[in-house]
């Protein structure tokens, strides 16, 4: 029998400085990783995905797509997730063709642009990494969340390019006897990791929203 627990993202995957609102991930300095204790569960990369959504200023020209999680482990102790980490391959980033409606643009062109030094510089920084630092209970009836029914607050160190910051966001977690599932949806500020188009403060960078919505669907099985 499965139980929903106050325990355990992400991805993976990628941008907003937080405040009291849980729509935006609270962003702080890097913290110490949670101690590795309990039973290990291997992340099923075929059943796990990271989704992203970004827009131009004012919400115009929304783009969305996915990025692959390529490795990871969660640890469960006393019915709750105690620690964990996962890796995201930025070279696997794809843009959904349905989000590119302009006749003179292709989703594959945007893929290349996002992987270029203009944004993620995936050739030199191919992996993004998330390491859990803490997991606490969350009451979705009392706090606002992009994810209805969130059960937990996850905090972890997110590394993008050569920068690591700690983010905290709501997640919905279910721990079973042989598997763990987790879902999350939150917003980060790409510029906190130094991800700017052209230069910080340039008109080109200003025209793109700093906020990037990240979602993930994660599944792990007992090793």
Automatic annotation (TrEMBL):
It comes from the Bacteria. PROSITE patterns: PROKAR_LIPOPROTEIN (PS51257). Keywords: Signal. PANTHER family: PROTEIN YCEI. It holds the Pfam family YceI. The lineage of its organism: Bacteria, Pseudomonadati, Bacteroidota, Chitinophagia, Chitinophagales. It comes from Chitinophaga pinensis (strain ATCC 43595 / DSM 2588 / LMG 13176 / NBRC 15968 / NCIMB 11800 / UQM 2034). SMART domains: YceI. This is YceI family protein. Residues 40-221 form the Lipid/polyisoprenoid-binding YceI-like domain. Residues 1-25 form the signal peptide.
């Amino acid at each position: 029998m499965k139980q929903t627990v106050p325990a355990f993202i992400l991805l993976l995957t990628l941008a907003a400085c937080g405040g009291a609102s849980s729509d935006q991930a609270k962003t702080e300095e890097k913290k110490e990783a949670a101690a590795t204790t309990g039973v290990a569960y291997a992340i099923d990369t075929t059943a796990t995905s990271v989704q992203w959504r970004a827009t131009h200023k004012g919400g115009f020209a929304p783009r969305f797509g996915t990025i692959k999680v390529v490795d990871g482990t969660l640890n469960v102790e006393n019915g709750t997730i105690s620690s964990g980490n996962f890796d995201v391959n930025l070279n696997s980033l794809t843009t959904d063709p349905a989000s590119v409606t302009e006749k003179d643009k292709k989703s594959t062109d945007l893929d290349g642009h996002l992987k270029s030094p203009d944004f993620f510089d995936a050739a030199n920084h191919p992996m993004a990494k998330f390491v859990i630092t803490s997991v606490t209970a969350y009451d979705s009836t009392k706090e606002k969340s992009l994810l209805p029914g969130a059960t937990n607050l996850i905090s972890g160190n997110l590394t993008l390019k050569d920068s690591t910051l700690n983010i905290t966001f709501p997640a919905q977690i279910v721990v079973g006897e042989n598997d763990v599932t987790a879902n999350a949806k939150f917003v980060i500020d790409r510029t906190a990791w130094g991800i700017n188009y052209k230069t910080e403060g340039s008109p080109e960078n200003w025209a793109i929203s700093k906020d990037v919505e990240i979602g993930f669907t994660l599944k792990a099985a007992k090793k």
